[in-house]
Amino acid sequence: MNYLTLEIEKHWNRILRISNLSSEEIQTSISKLFAKIQFITDGSISKEIWLWAENLVQDIDQDDVDFVALTKFLEGNLWSGDKVLILGLRKKGFQNIITTSELFALRDTIRNGLTI
User: Fold this and answer.
1) What is the 3 state secondary structure string of the chain?
2) Contact (CB, 8 A) for 66 and 3
3) Would you give per-residue pLDDT tens digits along the chain (116 residues)?
4) What residue segments make up the domains of the chain, in order of their start?
5) How far apart are CA 63 and CA 67, in angstroms?
6) Largest CA distance in the chain
7) What distance in Å separates the CA atoms of residue 106 and residue 61, rounded to the nearest whole number?
8) Using CB atoms within 10 A of its CB, is residue 36 exposed (0-12), middle (13-18) or buried (19+)?
9) Which long-range contacts (CB under 8 A, 24 or more apart) does 70-74 make?
10) What's the rounded Cα separation, in Å, for the pair 84 and 86?
11) Of 16, 61, 21, 65, nearest to 45 (Cα)?
């Protein structure tokens, strides 16, 4: 079972309450969404990356090791609003992190036709 499925199950009652949808409608929506997602299993990420990520977050927030490992594996950027995580990672030289405000600024730059 993947992390997203676990989180949906964990928050199912809240999803029902705030969505004003039936269980069947939510299940249909989830099925359509999952058809568009390529899930990456823990085993797809090398042990070296896991160890690197664990070492990086050990004194910041161990709960974020999965996100940091996945970011490294995908060679992408980690989108986070967690100020402690952001500052801690950047202090250690990890620059592959972007905040919501930085994303909004990037969006505005693109909308205005400016180059980055």
Assistant:
1) CCHHHHHHHHCHHHHHHHHCCCHHHHHHHHHHHHCCCCCCCHHHCCHHHHHHHHHHHCCCCHHHHHHHHHHHHHCCCEECCCHHHHHHHHHCCCCCEECHHHHHHHHHHHHCCCCC
2) yes
3) 677 888 899 999 999 999 999 999 999 999 999 999 888 888 899 999 999 999 999 999 998 999 999 999 999 999 998 999 999 999 999 999 999 899 999 888 888 886 65
4) 3-34, 42-111
5) 9
6) 46
7) 27
8) exposed
9) 70/40, 70/45, 71/96, 71/97, 72/96, 73/40, 73/44, 73/45, 73/46, 73/49, 74/40
10) 6
11) 65
Q: What is the pLDDT of residue 6?
A: 87
Task: Give the Cα separation of 83 and 90 in Å (integer).
Answer: 10
Hey, what amino acid is at 39? F
- Which residue's entry shows tokens 């199950």? 9
| Tokens matching residue 13 | 């009652």
